[in-house]
Amino acid sequence: MDIISARTDESQKQSYRLTNAMDLDPLLDRIGDARCVMLGEASHGTHEYYTWRTAISKRLIQEKGFTFIAVEGDWPDSYQINRFVKGYPDSGTKPLEVLRTFDRWPTWMWANWEIAALMEWLKSHNTGLANDRKVGFYGLDVYSLWESMESLVDYLEKTDPEAAQAAHRAINCFQPYGEEGQNYAQAILYRSASCRDEVIQLLREIRTKARYYDHEPEASLNIEQNAHIAVNAEKYYRSMISFSDESWNIRDAHMMETLNRLRQFHGSTSKAIVWEHNTHIGDARYTDMKHSGMINIGQLAREQYSEKDVVLVGFGSYQGTVIAGNRWGAPMEVMTVPSARKGSVEERLHAEGADNKLLIFDRINKNERFSTEMPHRAIGVVYHPERERYGNYVPTVLNHRYDAFIYLDQTRALHPLHLHPDETKMPETYPFGF
């Protein structure tokens, strides 16, 4: 055997065939005692990304005692899922009752049959457990400014009229701009308007009284998180007037702060599962994002926790179909995902064999076949397959960006609930829709 072949064999020892949930054993071994596992996706509309993340999450919950799942979704909507899976009063009797209220484009990200199945499993798992042992489901994102403030007003009017006045002042400040963050950003640019003082005062008011909000086990967490969203969403929209990537960093910093808040709320032994796009959970320092000064939650977790306490798992596929739109607010479509670009991570793994694979990375081994920069596919909620050869790929050092990688050779579109999105509730996300 020559030296090149020997090196290839050595690097491929960390590659495993993936056919069912029991094949995840090497990943569970790699996770070990880590208390934060982040599970990515290369698109927001692929069935297998959701089902494999569900399979991993179930095993982490059952075998390693993980405490909650936190996702790239709005807090108010996700909190309704949390209430349902924990069996809180008036939380609905079926997943579809909850998911049909999701109306922010792209609705398919969470209002889909794959999430409905996860909700049923979580509710069954939680049945009979004490409240502090029930597994939760939360949203990490920053976009729900109006929904969060409306939730605050509704709750505080019933429980704390004094704090409700602060909430009304904040919501009245934003009223002239409607529910479009861009309108608020333009107002700051041209008229020096700002609602910053109002939302900060609201947060101060709530933080001093949060411990008294106890009508259900997580009322204080819910009310305080909605106030933090008001502050950070205002900051996010204000940043839109700049010509930098500050808004991206504000968004991921908010998600990291929310994750820390959830871990603190659930106690020193809590364990977190995070579901987000690869662009968020894959360490930004090992992509071209670094050159633009961009950070993400995967990088922040490695920096803030010990690296042995965090495991980042990326996902990718060679070809198939996906749910996406051809512009913001467009109807969802099933689109064809063409075969991966030559020289990409996905093309190389396909060439090694058209089967699903689990890769466990050795970041120290310089001979590891993914230790150099390669194109790695990333599909957003807005997608144009015909343009993919010229975009949709992130230069990546795969074995440093992730600790493990799940490659799925052929994938298909997920199964949305066919909701009609409210086009007035579109988040102003990063241009690629991650």
Query: What is the H level of CATH, i.e. the homologous superfamily of the largest domain?
Result: EreA-like (biosynthetic domain)
Helix content: 40-55%
Identify the CATH class of the largest domain. Answer: Alpha Beta
Beta-strand residue fraction:
5-15%
Question: What string gives the helices and strands in order?
Answer: HEHEHEHHHEHHHHHHEHHEEHEEEHE
Largest sheet: 9 strands, mixed
Please give the radius of gyration in angstroms: 22 Å
Number of E-type strands: 11
Structural class: alpha/beta
CATH architecture of the largest domain: 3-Layer(aba) Sandwich
pLDDT under 50 segments (min length 5)?
1-11, 426-431
How is the CATH topology of the largest domain named? EreA/ChaN-like  fold
Structure explained in plain terms:
InterPro entries: Emycin_Estase (IPR007815), Hydrolase/PRTase-associated (IPR052036), UCP036794_erythomycin (IPR014622). It holds the Pfam family Erythro_esteras. This protein is α/β, with parallel strands linked by helices and 434 residues long. It has two domains: 3-139 and 271-411, EreA/ChaN-like  fold; 145-253, no CATH class. Helix content is 42%, strand content 14%. The chain has 16 helices and eleven strands. The protein has helices at residues 3-12, 25-31, 47-64, 75-85, 95-99, 113-126, 145-159, 161-174, 181-191, 196-209, 219-239, 246-266, 278-281, 297-304, 345-351, 398-401, and strands at residues 15-17, 36-39, 68-71, 136-139, 272-275, 310-324, 333-337, 357-360, 374-377, 393-396, 404-411. The strands form two sheets. Strands 1, 2, 3, 4, 5, 6, 7, 8 and 11 form a nine-stranded mixed sheet that branches. Strands 9-10 form a two-stranded antiparallel ribbon. A hairpin with an 8-residue loop joins strand 6 and strand 7. Helix 8 runs antiparallel to helix 10 (196-209) and helix 10 (196-209) runs antiparallel to helix 11 (219-239). The protein is globular and about 65 Å long. 49% of the residues are buried.
